[in-house]
Design goal:
single chain, 330 residues, alpha/beta, 2 domains, 7-stranded mixed beta sheet, 17 strands
Length: 330
């Protein structure tokens, strides 16, 4: 089968490898859809924290089970699933507390371990989340939604609290979805005219620059140092600031302002145990990612077309399709 490897920043390679064989309690899955994340774009540009090369990208995955041991969670060959890409050790302090997203040896497929830019991969059975209703596109975006789901959980939203989301990329959009589902009045701040228009078309109040209105909860989903440092200014007294984006740098805080307003600062990393609930919410229609997908490309075209993705007009979310002959096992 044909595998696409990010050999180093700015360079993809294509190579033929054997179809992997499953270990104990693992399934072989056919990758059909790969969501392109900011992590992938940053890795290509050489700016992704905790990343090593070479690496097979792809952690937002809509897959089909090809082979699976019997009597495994009611799953059978042919089932379509969202693949949770977080490999945790299960024994560290964080894992024992149920905080598997904070595992001291966390391995994320497509980041710390090879991911889905290949037709077939093996996966632990317990990380496969089946749906008979969702499309492969929808299943591939469950991981992105998990980031927003966990961030909103971390914020512990209370009724009638106001929310400001800074950054309207896919991660910011996922925060918006779950904040609105919780009943929050959400406003969005973004510098991109295209993203502002996209958010406005969803019926959400959008800002091109900060105004004087403070929010009870501010989510910064930019992964931008200057934005993260300035976001404290947007938090109301007694409010919460949640850093959803990640940078490979230190962030400076205006300590007098931080103390004067008695702000709670929270980090949000990946998600834990969120996939089943997210699948259910999409099935129920309370979460809709259909408008997000603005661009598509085939797996075989990744080396040629991926580099230009960040410059594509109107880009919100790109999806890679792994359904053509480049994915055959030969």
């Amino acid at each position: 089968m044909r595998q696409i490897v990010l050999n180093r920043p700015g360079e993809f390679l294509s190579r033929d490898i054997a179809v992997p064989q499953p270990g104990e309690n693992q399934a072989i899955v056919r990758v059909h859809r790969i969501g392109v994340c900011g992590t992938d774009l940053h890795a290509f540009a050489g700016r992704q924290p905790y990343f090593e090369y070479p690496r097979v990208l792809g952690h937002e995955l809509g897959v089909e089970i090809v082979a699976i041991p019997e009597n495994q969670q009611g799953l059978v060959a042919g089932d379509h699933c969202a693949l949770e890409p977080y490999l945790s050790c299960g024994s560290c302090t964080a894992c024992r507390q149920g905080k598997t997203n904070c595992c001291t040896d966390l391995q994320v497929l497509g980041v710390h371990a090879d991911g889905g830019m290949q037709p077939y991969i093996t996966a632990p059975v317990h990380l496969l989340h089946k749906s008979t209703k969702l499309s492969l596109d929808q299943l591939a975006l469950v991981e992105t939604l998990g980031i927003g789901f966990h961030a909103v959980e971390r914020a512990a939203f209370q009724e009638e609290e106001s929310v400001l989301v800074i950054g309207a990329g896919p991660i910011g959009l996922s925060v918006i979805q779950f904040a609105r589902a919780a009943g929050a009045h959400v406003r969005v701040l973004d510098v991109s005219p295209q993203r502002r228009q996209f958010v406005a078309d969803l019926g959400i109040e959008v800002l091109s620059e900060p105004d004087d209105e403070l929010a009870d909860i501010v989510f910064d989903a930019t992964g931008n140092k200057l934005s993260m440092e300035a976001s404290l200014e947007r938090v109301a007294p007694g409010g919460r600031l949640v850093f959803v984006g990640l940078i490979l740098d230190k962030v400076a805080i205006d300590d007098p302002l931080f103390h004067r307003r008695e702000v709670t600062l929270l980090a949000s990393r990946n998600s834990a145990n969120a996939f089943p609930r997210i699948v259910q919410m999409i099935e129920e229609g309370s979460i809709d990612t259909a408008p997000w997908i603005t661009h598509r490309l085939e797996l075989a075209a990744v080396p040629d077309e991926f580099p230009a993705l960040p410059q594509q007009e109107g880009l919100i979310k790109a999806v890679i399709e792994v359904d053509s002959d480049d994915g055959s096992t030969g």
